[in-house]
Amino acid sequence: MAADETGERLPAATDGRVPTGVAGHAAARVFTDVAGHAAARVPTVVADRVDIVYRVHGAGSPAGRGAATAALGRILRRGSSPAARTVHAVRQVSFTAHRGEAIGLVGTNGSGKSTLLKAVAGLLPVERGRIYTDGRPALLGVNAALMNDLTGERNVRLGCLAMGMSPERIAERYQEIVDFSGINDKGDFITLPMRTYSSGMAARLRFSIGAAENHDVLLIDEALATGDRSFQRRSEARIRELRRHAGTVFLVSHNNKSIRDTCDRVLWLEHGELRADGPTDDVMAEYERFTGGGRR
Ligand SMILES: Nc1ncnc2c1ncn2[C@@H]1O[C@H](COP(=O)(O)OP(=O)(O)OP(=O)(O)O)[C@@H](O)[C@H]1O
Question: Which residue ranges does the record assign to the ABC transporter domain (predicted)?
């Protein structure tokens, strides 16, 4: 049983049941046909009463000061001014994800979706509660770290190495990744530094690198919102394929249609709290009533 800073692996000899009492702590509305079958399936991610709190240092500097002045002020005050503002981004969130599920995360701006995804990926510590994962989670975000001064090609190779692919496997898959990204559709851009890419091109490359291999738990943050319609179609097809290979997919998106087309279950977060957890149609209908918008 391996553990890291933020999460733990599920015990290897899992019998398909979630830890006792996890579901019972969910404050959210849990729709019965998801919860009712939970015991029969293999859990891949269990969040147990998770709280995530950001600490913002240097907040509250007098208005009108420039960034450099504010930074200097922070250095001079270091040690004498411990004040840090806190942002309680995720509150008492519990859920269990299973192998083969594609789960959408919806919620209005600032509701805690990206924060929760980063914590599941092991990139953010939890304040309270626990996140257990079975398998290695991979976060495909528009903010995933690629190096702006390196070419697209170097980033593909480094990104694949970082995901644990061997140099031979990378050589095999390289062209496929570049073709999937569509980066070279309008010229030889893959040999140019990433800083010359539009934000859509960069996001497409990030998605293509992350989606190159099957993952046990794949976390996608808004990747489908970027790129043109044909790239979105390719990514949706790839997500369906990744799902077939027994992984669990989490998708954060404001595009309700992408959520409906890709996910069979939706978690709805609001003010950091889980408002609902259930089949896509049921939760999306409630969410759309809440946001006042119809289907998109
Ligand atoms: N690095 C950070 N430091 C401090 N607060 C943060 C940080 N990142 C996010 N927050 C705060 O945490 C809360 C949740 O933000 P988060 O980005 O998770 O929301 P979201 O649901 O993904 O939003 P959006 O739909 O706008 O992308 C917000 O109040 C946000 O201001």
Answer: 70-296
Q: Is the pLDDT of residue 21 over 50?
A: no
Q: Which CATH number fits domain 7-136+215-291: 3.40.50.300, 3.40.50.620, 2.60.40.10, 3.40.50.1820?
A: 3.40.50.300
Please give the number of the atom of ligand 1 that sits closest to the Cα of 111. 21
Give residues (CB < 6 A) around ligand 1: 54, 56, 87, 89, 107, 109-115
Q: Whose CA is nearest to atom 26 of ligand 1?
A: 109
Instruction: Give 111 Cα–ligand 1 centroid separation in angstroms.
Output: 7
Closest C-alpha residue for ligand 1 atom 7: 54
CA distance 116 to 53: 11
Q: Give the pairing type, strands 102-106 and 265-270.
A: parallel
pTM: 0.73
Domain positions in the chain: 7-136+215-291
Q: Classify residue 66 by its DSSP letter.
A: -
For the chain, give the mean pLDDT.
Answer: 80
Rounded to two decimals, the ipTM of the complex is: 0.98
Distance CA 257, CA 260 (A): 5
For ligand 1, atom 20, the nearest C-alpha belongs to 110
Sheet harboring 128-133: ordered strands across? 7-9, 128-133, 43-57, 84-98
Size of the chain, expressed as the number of residues it contains: 296
- Calpha distance 204→221 (Å, rounded): 12
